[in-house]
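Technical annex, item 7. During the second reporting period the consortium partners agreed on a shared format for inverse folding records so that results from different sites could be compared directly. Each record opens with the tokenized structure and is followed by the designed sequence. A conforming record, contributed by the partner at site C, is shown below for reference.
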């Protein structure tokens, strides 16, 4: 039996890019069907992540145009990770395999053939890995690669240069459903599920149209916890304050050294002041880090829904 594939595509304010890339996805799914790699009941599932523009209207129109296109809409914007999760959970009982991919055409859809082949060869998870980052700016490449290295040093198991372009079988998704956390970071969670996995390499391209929703600030947020949360912001401010105080202390140390060398020092007070500043800075940073974990626990105990689907283009009754 050929596996039925659902391509899960998160979309947030993508009215510029969707009309262009939708045909790419449609052609690809038809091509895979023709090749006999996937079943005829395969679908392209758009997840509208509370867009403020015409994205949902476009998805509704597409679903009327071709039965391959279907869509669900989230009640509000919840971020990329939650949108992907909503799509995967929607798909898990209705298909055999899913492939999650961004809607902006940056990830090479031609890697899908290889992904499905790997699945047919026994892999349950196939990670799409960016082999080159030529089209990214030096800054994006540097920050992104540092991000993976930082995660690794911190003990998070991630596949280097893999984002959220991946094939996951419904078997894995049914187990993944038991990972109930609210703070979700999908690329770090799937390796924890286990099962046989492999990687497929592709070149990352430039966004076809529209703008990235991941400026540096958002990338930092993702590196920090995956979701930003108002309730733990004050703790982050404490962390920042700590860093500032520590910095002042360090500048102070340099200043003390200079005054000692130039012979203008009043023995004792400056060095004491620097030590106090440094130590209290470190203490504040530490409180901030602990607070970050408490903030996470706070969000987890509340166990609020991770996504709420408000509309679907199918099963409307
Ligand atoms: N996205 C989303 N919700 C958000 C932000 C982004 O669903 O709050 C989607 C977006 O439509 C795109 C994907 O996530 O399909 C990746 O976003 P983007 O291309 O802006 O990020 P980048 O590729 O620059 O990291
Ligand atoms: Mg993108």
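Designed sequence (site C submission):
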């Amino acid at each position: 039996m050929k596996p039925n594939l659902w391509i899960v595509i998160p979309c947030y304010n993508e009215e510029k890019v969707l009309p262009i890339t939708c045909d790419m996805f449609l052609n690809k799914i038809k091509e895979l069907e023709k090749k006999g790699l996937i079943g005829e009941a395969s679908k392209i599932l758009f997840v509208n992540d509370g867009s403020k523009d015409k994205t949902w209207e476009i998805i509704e129109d597409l679903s009327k145009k071709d039965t391959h296109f279907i869509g669900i809409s989230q009640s509000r914007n919840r971020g990329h990770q939650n949108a992907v999760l909503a799509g995967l959970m929607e798909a898990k009982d209705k298909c055999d395999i899913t492939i999650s991919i961004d809607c902006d055409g940056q990830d090479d859809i031609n890697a899908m053939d290889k992904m499905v082949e790997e699945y047919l060869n026994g892999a349950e998870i196939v990670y799409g890995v960016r082999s080159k980052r030529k089209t990214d700016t030096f800054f994006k490449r540097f920050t992104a690669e540092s991000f993976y290295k930082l995660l690794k040093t911190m003990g998070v198991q991630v596949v280097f240069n893999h984002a959220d372009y991946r094939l996951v079988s419904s078997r894995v998704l049914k187990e993944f459903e038991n990972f109930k956390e609210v703070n979700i970071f999908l690329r770090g969670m799937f390796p924890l599920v286990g099962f046989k996995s492999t990687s497929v390499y592709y070149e990352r391209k430039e966004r076809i149209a529209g703008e990235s929703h991941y400026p540096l600030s958002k990338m930092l947020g993702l590196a920090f916890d995956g979701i930003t949360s108002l309730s733990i912001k004050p703790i982050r401010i404490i962390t920042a304050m700590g860093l500032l105080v520590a910095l002042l202390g360090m500048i102070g140390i340099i200043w003390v050294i200079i005054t000692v060398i130039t012979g203008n020092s009043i023995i004792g007070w400056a060095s004491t002041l620097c030590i106090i500043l440094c130590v209290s800075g470190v203490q504040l940073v530490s409180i901030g880090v602990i607070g970050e974990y408490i903030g996470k626990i706070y969000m987890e105990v509340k166990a609020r829904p991770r996504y709420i689907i408000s509309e679907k283009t199918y099963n409307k009754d």
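The pocket of magnesium ion (ligand 2) is lined by residues 102, 104, 106, 207, 212 (CB under 6 Å). Confidence is low (pLDDT under 50) at residues 226-231. All partners now use this format for quarterly exchanges.
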